[in-house]
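Entry for the shared binder. Reason: the reviewer on the internal report wants the predicted structure included alongside the sequence.
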Amino acid sequence: MPRPSLAALLTLLAALAFAAGAFISDPFTGFDPDQFPNPTPPLILQPAGYAFAIWGVIYAWLIASAVFGLIRRGDDPDWQAARWPLIVSMAIGAIWIEVALASPVWATILIFAMLAGALMSLVRCPAHETGWLAAPIALYAGWLSAASVVATATAVTGWTGLDPAISSWIGLLAVGSLGVAVLQLRPPLSYPLALIWALTGVLVASAQNPADLTLFMGAILGAIGAIALTAWRRRPGTA
């Protein structure tokens, strides 16, 4: 068994702290409208509540990856490169809910820092370690890709008074564009699956809105289709 490195140990500690943060903090169901100068209800871009259950999978998979890495890849140089940005991302994630409950602006800034760390780690993952390393990070990065846009759209709407429908349209375009851009890097299938899961949650939420959202729902289906098609074309092993 290889001797574990400091980075391997810190990865496990960060993963455990990340998961613990969700349990010791007050429940977070989105930014409180009263936190903004222009209180607005949740955007139609906000996924339905059930979609957030993906965090349980993300936490469990990241912890399992960290445990495996500590025991079996403790000093592996291929893993070392991916560990440090992931440690930073998860360490920020451990305090993110507390920050979000206090300051939507700082929470929005920090979620982009989390996304940057996750994507940097994903890019550095060795191709032969998909299941234990790249796949859980890709799932995490995929959900953050959607969550960061939703947080930004909500904060911009609350601070500027921009029409929520316009914010949702801009956010939907941003999610689709970011997803397609990252897919050019050929991440594991868990990345587009996380994005599609988030967009499906938006579809379910918008279907429950009494307003006529047929066009928006059609756009969501189009975004899901574009991401799925790009993922298929850019999957590992294809030209």
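Summary line for the report: The mean pLDDT is 87.
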